[in-house]
Amino acid sequence: MINVAILGYGTVGSGVFKIINDNNSHISRRAGDEVKVKYVLDLRDFPGDPVEDVLVHDVDIIMNDDDVDVVVEVMGGVEPAYTFVKRALESGKSACTSNKELVAKHGAELLTIAQEKNVNFFFEASVGGGIPIIRPLIECLTVDHIEEIQGIMNGTTNYILTKMEDEGADFDTVLKDAQDKGYAERNPEADIEGYDACRKIAILASLAYEKQVDFEDIYTEGITKITTADFDYMKKIGASIKLLGIAKKVDGKTYSMVAPFVVYQENPLYNVKDVFNAILVKGDMLGDVMFYGKGAGSLPTASAVVSDVVDAVKRQGYTAKIYWSDTKRELGGVDAFTTPYFVRVSVGDSSDEASVKALKSKVEEVFGQVDFIDGEKSGEIAFITKELSGSEFDKAAENFDIISRIRVS
What we know:
The protein is α/β, with parallel strands linked by helices. Helix content is about 35%, strand content about 25%. It contains 14 helices and 20 strands. It has helices spanning about 10-20, 25-30, 60-65, 80-90, 100-115, 135-140, 155-165, 170-180, 190, 195-210, 230-235, 300-315, 355-365, 390-395, and strands at about 1-5, 35-40, 55, 70-75, 95, 120, 145-150, 210, 220, 240-250, 255-265, 275-285, 285-295, 325-330, 340, 340-345, 370, 380-385, 390, 400-409.
């Protein structure tokens, strides 16, 4: 008998409880032992809910029970999640979590404790919800050097950008729609400013490159400046705009960022719509492989958590080897990160043909070779630059009244 304790009975916690109960015979067969939820920790009461039979309000009941084999943390946030998971591991219990904040901040430390105590710390659901990406990185792509990871890692922002693109609605309107449908929180800052995606790419970069990548060091830019006018230009060039988390190695240096990118149709991420997520991994031997699915939600995320529980049960007595050193990996600066740029420049008060021609000439003089986009809007011109470093672009941009600039993937 394997006893599981669930910390938190919210969206994901209730999903974990439901999956273990509803699919118990299937899960137990796959695990090789009967799996049972012995405790669920929450401060609230749930009258009439089946969880009442196992509900506790004191975490010490769980930590002091030697019969608890696996602790599932689905509370969210760094504290008290970090304290609880650390206690569980130190007391010889394996732990599984969907908590990206916790993993991004303390993943390396918690893995070290698990190794010392001969238990496991698993966190598949911390990136991409129900999409399997952590285990493929650490188990299936072991012969490859990971050259680049780029992904749509936040369903809320992808939904907003999809609606703006397909329906021509402005950002504020679509954000309210996303909130009304439950895709966005009342305070959507973590999503729309890119912080959620930042923590996820920090986890993937730490695993791919085997040293700690601090999310605080990752340049992060949200989607609040994207307009319907930007999408109008995208239709002209057969492209879309996606909020991407990127980690890559170039000439021995590691770069990572979260920002909106112009994505062309040749990129598999172009067709990822609505609340779906997708993560594209490029290995030096395998080439490109993409992981796609629902990146959030009760049952998809809980499914990944319960899969970790099964894996922890199967690995009782030894610790899975996960290479993630707490030694910090230094990142190359955003000023050295090179991409082409989509740029919109104001013509100014005078937008006659001569003024436009003069501005285009100046653009070519300053930026070098560019591709102008036909059918510009009144009062502006738009173009795609050659590949430029961040510092090169900033220096060139000082000569113009920039309306919009978006990096090109």
